[in-house]
Amino acid sequence: MIFDPITICNMDIQNRFVRSATHEFMAEKDGKPTSRLGDLYEVLAKNEVMLIITGYSYVLPGGKSDIFQQGIYEDRFIEPYLKITEKVHRYRSKIVLQIVHAGRQATTSEEYLVPIAPSKIKDAYSAVMPREMTEQGILEVIDAFTRAAARTKKAGFDGVQLHCAHGFLLSDFSSPYTNRRTDRWGVQWKTEQE
Ligand SMILES: Cc1cc2nc3c(=O)[nH]c(=O)nc-3n(C[C@H](O)[C@H](O)[C@H](O)COP(=O)(O)O)c2cc1C
């Protein structure tokens, strides 16, 4: 079965060997993917891993969680990613870009002093108290994810995966622990009795 082809949405995949999203930290400091990253994916593709999910790629400079993490926050990233997807497609493998905003776990800098989150709940991992996002801020992040997904397509990826786990921004929106909002972006979890 593991050698059988499978179709996921419009992706015809030649077998079921999948490389789960795993950060590589092979980008330049500004998030531009390097050719080393392409070389790594090429080895996977050459060895018949027919679906590769990339490491998490940040959609805004303020949504980065680690140095040398890859980004997709500007159009100038399309070209280097295109070179990578072309390499992978030579072996008929598919490649999906995972996109993320690190939210409360974002790296702080002079430019990005306080990380953002749906609510002001301290991050247990970093002990950082985030800033609650405004309506306008939420719309900007949605726009950044949309633009990142569009770049992904232009860069030749076969799909895009949203990173909705590990305490990053999207997972914080879906948890009632980290999302205490009462506006339209809040989460209401109903019990069976309700
Ligand atoms: C070094 C390392 C980096 C990872 N990077 C990511 C990542 O960028 N995005 C993600 O969604 N998961 C990431 N993961 C989680 C893996 O994709 C996977 O879900 C996890 O290792 C559990 O899979 P397993 O039970 O097959 O080991 C990472 C895991 C490891 C060990």
Would you summarize the structure shown here?
This protein has helices at residues 35-46, 78-89, 135-154, 169-174, and strands at residues 6-8, 11-13, 18-19, 51-58, 94-100, 116-117, 131-132, 159-162. By secondary structure, the chain is α/β, with parallel strands linked by helices.
Structural class: alpha/beta
Biggest pleated-sheet summary: 4 strands, parallel
Give the domain tally: 1
Radius of gyration: 18 Å
For the secondary structure, the number of strands is 8
And the CATH topology?
TIM Barrel
SSE order, as H and E? Answer: EEEHEHEEEHEH
- Can you give the helix content as a percent range? 25-40%
Strand order of the largest sheet: 3-4-5-8
Ligand identities: flavin mononucleotide
In whole angstroms, the N-to-C terminal distance is 43 Å
Give the CATH H-level superfamily: Aldolase class I
Q: Which percent range describes the beta-strand content?
A: 15-25%
* Count of individual helical segments: 4
CATH architecture: Alpha-Beta Barrel
Structural topology:
Blueprint: E1 6-8, E2 11-13, E3 18-19, H1 35-46, E4 51-58, H2 78-89, E5 94-100, E6 116-117, E7 131-132, H3 135-154, E8 159-162, H4 169-174
Parallel strand pairs: 3-4, 4-5, 5-8, 6-7
Antiparallel strand pairs: 1-2
The structure holds flavin mononucleotide (FMN).
Residues 20-23, 55-56, 98, 163, 165 line the site of flavin mononucleotide (FMN).
Structure, explained:
The mean pLDDT is 95. The protein has 194 residues and is of the alpha/beta class. The N and C termini lie far apart (43 Å). The protein has a single domain (6-174), classed as TIM Barrel (Alpha-Beta Barrel). Helix 1 links the parallel strand 3 (18-19) and strand 4 (51-58). Helix content is 26%, strand content 16%. The strands form three sheets. A four-stranded parallel sheet has the order 3-4-5-8, with helices on one face. Strands 1-2 form a two-stranded antiparallel sheet. The protein has a two-stranded parallel sheet with strand order 6-7. The structure holds flavin mononucleotide. Flavin mononucleotide is lined by residues 20-23, 55-56, 98, 163, 165.
